[in-house]
């Protein structure tokens, strides 16, 4: 999935409402995203916005992304390093759902934000392996003790997205057995 206009607009609102400026942002982007608004790699947009730091993680290793398998734990040097972690259409392609969400949590610092564009069930048919019901959004927030800074549905003909911003309150992540209690549609 690319960064579409609605995601780009909401992301800018989130940064502003989080009392951040782009010059304060250390961002970890899951997937080597393409920004369809500006017609270039998201990495270039973030760098033009003068972020402090940007990395993207993608198994393809393209456009300067770090080639990591998100089914495995992230490297120690990435843990707690970012105040913004984005997931704009990456997690639904990762086989190990527990590990990819743990990686997002681990990369984010305390009081940092994790921004997701998640595919709800019966949307984006034949895209991705996993879809996320609203109960997933609520349950992971409760179980991980995240606050929800923003929750909005992006409406697009049978291609709706759940746009949610979690704020990380504490270190640690739930166990795999706890995570398995959170509903994900395969």
Task: Walk me through what this model shows.
By secondary structure, this protein is of the alpha/beta class. The protein has one domain: Vaccinia Virus protein VP39 (Rossmann fold, 3-Layer(aba) Sandwich), CATH 3.40.50.150. It is built from 5 helices and 8 strands. The chain has helices at residues 5-17, 42-48, 97-107, 134-144, 176-179; strands spanning 26-30, 34-35, 40-41, 53-57, 82-88, 108-118, 147-154, 161-167. The strands form 2 sheets. It has a 6-stranded mixed β-sheet with strand order 4-1-5-6-8-7, sandwiched between helices. Helix 3 (97-107) links the parallel strand 5 and strand 6. The chain is globular, with a radius of gyration of 15 Å.
CATH superfamily: Vaccinia Virus protein VP39
What is the count of DSSP helices, taking H or I runs of 4+ residues?
5
Assign the CATH architecture. Answer: 3-Layer(aba) Sandwich
Widest sheet, order of strands:
4-1-5-6-8-7
CATH topology: Rossmann fold
- What level of helicity do the residues show? 10-25%
Radius of gyration of CA atoms, rounded to a whole number: 15 Å
Tally of separate domains: 1
Shape: globular
CATH top level?
Alpha Beta
Mean pLDDT across every amino acid position: 95
Q: What's the quaternary structure here?
A: single chain
Tell me the number of strands.
Answer: 8
What class, by secondary structure content?
alpha/beta
Low-confidence stretches are none
Instruction: Give, in order, the helices and strands.
Output: HEEEHEEHEHEEH
Q: Alpha-carbon distance between the termini?
A: 18 Å
Sheet of most strands:
6 strands, mixed
Strand content: 25-35%
């Amino acid at each position: 999935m690319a960064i579409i206009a609605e995601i780009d607009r909401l992301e800018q609102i989130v940064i502003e409402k989080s009392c951040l400026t782009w010059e304060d942002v250390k961002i970890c982007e899951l997937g080597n995203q393409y920004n369809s608004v500006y017609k270039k790699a998201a990495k270039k947009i973030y760098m033009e916005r003068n972020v402090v730091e940007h990395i993207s993680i993608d198994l393809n290793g393209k456009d300067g992304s770090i080639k990591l398998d998100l089914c495995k734990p992230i490297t120690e040097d990435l843990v707690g390093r970012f105040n913004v972690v984005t997931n704009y259409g990456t997690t639904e392609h990762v086989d190990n759902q527990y590990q990819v969400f743990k990686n997002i949590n681990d990369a984010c610092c305390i009081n940092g934000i994790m921004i997701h564009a998640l595919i709800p069930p019966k949307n984006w048919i034949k895209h991705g392996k996993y879809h996320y019901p609203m109960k997933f959004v609520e349950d992971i927030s409760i179980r991980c003790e995240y606050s929800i800074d923003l929750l909005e549905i992006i409406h697009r003909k049978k291609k709706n997205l759940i746009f949610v911003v979690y704020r990380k309150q504490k270190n640690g992540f739930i166990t795999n057995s706890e995570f398995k209690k959170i509903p994900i549609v395969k």
